[in-house]
Design goal:
Largest sheet: 6 strands, mixed
Distance between the termini: 48 Å
Strand order of the largest sheet: 2-1-6-5-4-3
Strand content: 5-15%
Shape: globular
Radius of gyration: 18 Å
Helix content: 40-55%
Length: 252
């Protein structure tokens, strides 16, 4: 199993860029460029990305007290917070989905499919209530991720470290951490969210370094337990950034 599919999420930054654009913090041109950097050319069925952006703006309830854009990630030990048996759930890939809050409580679910040729989006609507998200605060998500990371590192160090020359796996991740951070975040992202994203990126890079780059799978049970916390941190960071964009927007 390739680790990156579990710990890397281009949807994290995609969600934040879309929210920054919706709340007039970033321009459409900058947003399109960032989304292209994140996944290559985007299509929306037979339509271009511009039509997807138009539909997103038309559907979004920018004054909703809940985040207008929510990131949904899932994987081992963590169910996707979409309605079981719904068309959106059936279409879901490992990449996850975005939930756009519409008027009158309607949920619009954007499901991407990533391939070597770019990203193709599918749009679903669900009038039924979705399962409640975790709703972790950035502080809670950061604490859980930090605790899980320290515990995994202690277990690895107690077992004698990895079989290759990596005495402290948390330090040997520079180039991969840079990869996870590309192409960066839009303007106005809260320091709390940025810190959470950075920690999630660093933990993700650590896991990939140990399991895939060093081809050492002896500590997989310890490292795989971190996947859920990495995903939860990304979702909590997106929610915090989106809520803050709304707060500034409502202030006028």
């Amino acid at each position: 199993m390739h680790t990156r599919a579990e710990v890397y999420s281009p949807l994290q930054n995609t969600a934040v860029w879309l929210a920054a654009w919706l709340y007039n913090v970033e321009s459409a041109d900058e947003t399109v460029a960032a989304l292209t950097d994140l996944g290559g050319p985007h299509t929306y069925g037979s339509l271009p990305l511009s039509q997807l952006l138009y539909d997103v703006r038309s559907a979004a309830d920018l004054e909703s007290p809940e985040p207008v854009m929510r990131l949904v990630l899932w994987g081992p030990g963590q169910a996707a917070r979409l309605r079981a048996g719904s068309p959106a759930m059936e279409a879901l890939t490992q990449a996850g989905a975005l939930v756009l809050r519409g008027g009158r409580g309607l949920n619009h679910i954007l499901v991407p499919e990533y391939s070597g040729g770019g990203v193709d989006w599918r749009w679903f609507e669900d009038p039924e209530p979705l399962p409640e998200p975790e709703w972790l605060t950035p502080g809670e998500a950061d604490r859980l991720l930090s605790q899980a990371t320290d515990q995994a590192a202690m277990l690895i160090e107690a077992a004698g470290g990895t079989s290759r020359d990596l005495p402290n796996p948390r330090l040997a991740v520079g180039t991969l951490a840079d990869f996870y951070d590309t192409p960066g975040l839009p303007a106005g992202v809260t320091p709390r969210a940025a810190k959470l994203f950075a920690r999630a990126d660093r933990v993700a890079a650590t896991i990939e370094t140990v399991t895939d780059r060093l081809d050492d799978h002896s500590f997989d049970p310890h490292l795989f337990a971190l996947w859920r916390h990495v995903r939860s941190a990304r979702m909590a960071g997106v929610a915090d950034a989106v809520v803050d964009y709304r707060r500034e927007y409502m202030r006028g």
